[in-house]
Write a structure and sequence with these properties.
globular; mainly alpha; 10 helices
Length: 258
């Protein structure tokens, strides 16, 4: 019965991701915690889940020329070494996985709150960036992009959250001239190597449940396709605030009350 529950959970999250475009990590990791999985298993399993589910999206966006590969490279120059450093930190600073459970939960709460903020104020962020003249030089923006990639690498490795919504916000703020489709495509193209790298790190730390991963994929892959097909018929103005409210509640729970 447990595996059926996990398949249904994967289908539910996949359907919501297909409708709203919000990354699965912000939904899946808290859900796995509510199911009783330890924080390290929830994060490690979700990272590999995210890498696999997003991979097909990269191919699609690349074919449509929605990926700015230079920006993917700059973000990855920061995020991948930061992910490796975070894995080294978890393995060598803490005695075992239970020792960093509180760190994962508190970091998760903060990332969920940030994700809720981005979901609620995404249109306002877009308007601000479109009005911005972005006076910074290209060299300065390149450096800031690498730095923000590093921050993202640490936080995604700790929480599995942020490669989608927070990555998108970073690209919108740093590159206001970038079209929405290119922001999404570039973010997904960076999210795959980041979540794969972080997922492999957690795999070596013993933080991946393969039975759970399989069940989530069985449910989510077809549900994402279904959600994307019906997304045009559902009111986004209702769905996104509702989703943001759930993320805010869960974020507050893990950031302040875990």
């Amino acid at each position: 019965m447990d595996i059926l529950l996990y398949i249904l959970a994967g289908a539910g999250v996949g359907f919501i991701v297909g409708i709203t475009g919000i990354g699965g990590g912000a939904l899946m990791t808290p859900l796995l915690l509510l199911f009783g999985f330890p924080p390290h298993i929830a994060v490690g399993t979700d990272l590999l889940y995210a890498a696999i589910t997003k991979a097909s999206g990269v191919i699609s966006h690349h074919k449509q020329k929605h990926v700015e590969w230079k920006l993917v490279k700059l973000l990855a120059m920061g995020s991948l070494p930061a992910a490796l450093f975070t894995g080294y930190f978890l393995q060598n600073i803490f005695e075992d996985s239970d020792s960093y459970a509180a760190l994962i939960k508190n970091s998760l709460g903060i990332m969920l709150l940030l994700t809720a903020f981005v979901v609620i104020f995404r249109k306002q962020l877009q308007r601000i960036t479109l009005r911005s003249k972005s006076p910074a030089s290209q060299g300065t923006r390149d450096i800031v992009t690498v730095i923000m990639g590093s921050v993202l690498g640490v936080l995604v490795t700790l929480t599995s959250v942020g490669a989608g919504a927070i990555g998108t916000a970073i690209l919108m703020l740093l590159y206001p001239a970038l079209r929405s489709a290119n922001v999404v495509g570039t973010d997904i193209a960076h999210a795959v190597p980041l979540t794969l790298c972080a997922g492999i790190i957690h795999l070596f730390l013993g933080n991946v449940d393969f039975g759970l991963l399989f069940a989530l994929l069985v449910g989510s892959i077809p549900a994402i396709q279904l959600g994307s097909k019906v997304s045009h018929h559902l009111p986004e103005s209702v769905l996104k605030p509702l989703l943001a409210g759930i993320l805010f509640f869960l974020g507050a729970k893990y950031a302040f009350f875990s």
